[in-house]
Amino acid sequence: MTVAVSEDPPFIISESNQNFQFLDTIEGLEQHLLSNIGRLVNISIDYIMVPPHVRYGFVLEDGSYTGSLVYLQNKTAEIVAGAFILIKNRAEVLDFITGYNFPTIKVYTSAHKEGTWKSVYKPFGQTTWALIILSYIVFSTVIIVLSYLITGNNDYMKTLLRVLGYFYGNVDNNLIRVTKLRRFIIIWIIFALLTCAFYNTALYSVITGKKTNITPVIDKQYISFLTPCITETILTFFKYTYNETLVTDDSPNCRYIETALDTVAKSSNLYTIYLDYSYKFGEYKYIDKDGNQKLDTWDYSSHYMLAMYASKGFPLFDVFCEYVQRFFESGLTEKHLNDIYFKSQLLKVNPVRKFVAVTLSDCRIHFGVLLFGVVLSVMCFVIELNKKQINYAT
Question: Which ranges constitute the DSSP H helices of the chain?
Fold first, then answer.
């Protein structure tokens, strides 16, 4: 049986390609599936390597085929493979063998580096910050009301400052002396202590840990300022799948994904769109000598399936589909793909961790918080001092 394949690692890998000699004898995933099925049904598999400029293909309105699909139309091959996405345009007129991989389309941009001082917001997420603020409001309200009912104290501004001061270690003696308030004050002291401890620990982890993109959802506002560098494959895919024409840069470096990712990694005003497996396979090329990612990734869309196509009425269609399903359900396809990724990850250069001097501007927020705490403490001290002088005069 003859199979026409387009090289697209890690699914189709050419033995003659010197760039992939590190894989030794490991085949691409689709080659691995076809070889094992051929062995099980006792048929030999012969491959026709499709030229790089041909790639993939679609079914036109007049019924003719383009790209690799021409090999099916000319009956030169029984199956075409090479990381084809299962789409309606092909599935309506061809048999398809699918269910072995489910890729995600991602947006790739040059790594966006933020100032060190902005890390002050990152230890907690928006929900955690909201809960801390809400807890402060609730506890302050309860203490103000109880303080007024028990002691007749109506100086709520002073109470608000006292409650906030516990975050800075400014312990107030007056509130804790009220027996009926003591339980609430102790709970608030423990809450403030744990909050500060968790924040400081998380802040240290954020500053010293590996920088990763913690926002998997695409930032449309940020992307809108960038120029698209989209491959011909993705342009054609969107045209025939979504009837949408994407705009892209005319640079020849944007035609193929290998050069498009390299171009985007070196430019801060470009982005590209492609399937995640291609980047994952060559991820080692986009990590600098210090171990930092050169590219940021954003989820664009998912729910895709890869497929191998055959002409309608392919005699072994049911057999191939059954074996592919068994390989996937047993975990063999995932294991083989992980073996390929593992081999590629071995090419990573072990980063040399360097000491980066921290400047005063990097600590601007930290000093701002410290200054706010000092001002708060001084205000409490002045209020207490004036209160005693008034009481003494009275």
Answer: 29-41, 70-73, 88-91, 126-151, 156-165, 173-177, 179-208, 220-223, 232-242, 257-266, 276-281, 317-329, 332-345, 364-393
Half-sphere exposure for 263 (CA within 13 Å, toward CB)? 22
User: Cα separation of 90 and 81, whole Å?
Assistant: 13
Taking the C-alpha atoms of residue 337 and residue 29, their distance in angstroms, rounded to an integer, is 6
| Token output for 344 | 């590629």
For 222-288, give the DSSP string: HHTTSEE---HHHHHHHHHHH---------GGGSSHHHHHHHHHH-TTEEEEEEHHHHHHTGGGGB-
Domain covering 2-101+306-345: architecture:
3-Layer(aba) Sandwich (3.40)
Per residue in 281-308, pLDDT tens?
888 888 887 777 889 888 888 889 999 9
Q: What is the pTM of this model?
A: 0.65
| Structure-token pair, residue 117 | 């001082």
What is the residue extent of each domain of the chain?
Answer: 2-101+306-345, 107-113+214-301, 123-210+360-393
CA 258/CA 279 separation, integer angstroms: 9
pLDDT digits (tens, 9 = 90+) for 165-206: 888 777 677 777 777 777 888 888 888 888 888 877 777 666
Low-confidence residues of the chain, pLDDT below 70? Answer: 113-123, 171, 204-222, 348-360, 388-394
Rg of the chain taking only CA atoms, in angstroms? 31
CA distance 359 to 281: 38
Alpha carbon separation from 37 to 79, 216, 310, 335, 350 (Å, rounded): 13, 37, 15, 17, 39
